[in-house]
Amino acid sequence: MKITRHVHACVEIEHEGFRIVIDPGGFGAPHDLVTAQAVLITHRHPDHIDTPALLKAVKKNPDLQVYAPVAVAEELPVDIRVVAHGDTFELGGLKIEVLGAKHAINVRVLPVEENVGYLIDGRILHPGDAFHPRADLELVLLPVNGPWVKMLDIEEWLVAFPPKRFIGIHDGIVNSHGLGINEKILNLLATKVGAEYLPLRPGESLDT
Fold first, then answer.
1. pLDDT tens, position by position, 4-13
2. Among 116, 130, 179, 203, whose CB has the most other CB atoms within 10 angstroms?
3. Is 46 exposed, middle or buried (0-12, 13-18, 19+ CB in 10 A)?
4. Looking only at Cα atoms, what is the longest distance across the chain?
5. Where are the domains of the chain?
6. How big, in percent rounded to 5, are the helix, strand and coil portions of the chain?
7. What is the pLDDT of residues 132-168, one digit of tens each?
8. Domain 2-200: which CATH class?
9. What predicted TM-score, i.e. pTM, was given to this entire model?
10. Alpha carbon distance 50, 55 (integer Å)
11. How far apart are CA 183 and CA 84, in angstroms?
12. DSSP 168
């Protein structure tokens, strides 16, 4: 299985020629989205779904499978496979499990949005914009910046549910200085919980 980081929260998983793209958002969706076999959306925020890019891809590739929670499906004029917590399905020989229901709180003056995470093959988690109470994970695509998350939240989650490895994502609003600070802190946290931090940059891949 090949995992490729794209911009911000977008991650691509390729398994035996089957490409799954998760959260191709407006900060930079993959240019070749149209050639993917499936797209998984965690929630409707524009940094996680580039609506024009997705609609263009579906128009060019009607066989593209799109999975998303109901709030996304209600806004898009395309065929969406609606998912919710507890759902399972298979893509390219990989079992996908849907976790969670709510976005982490940004500020209390804003409504709490719908959000789901996707557990891939029982071992790789993309949580969207939330922290899910899931232990014994091989790899977590870990949100590290945003209005709803701070490093203390990350530390507490890693201590409670230490994965074997994690990749920092959701950092598209951070400049180069902030990325450097992130990397130092994430390395410290990885050492604390006995995990391996993988500092993948957009465009970089790993095999797992």
1. 999 999 999 9
2. 116
3. exposed
4. 47
5. 2-200
6. 20, 30, 50
7. 999 999 999 999 999 999 999 999 999 999 999 999 9
8. alpha beta
9. 0.96
10. 9
11. 33
12. E
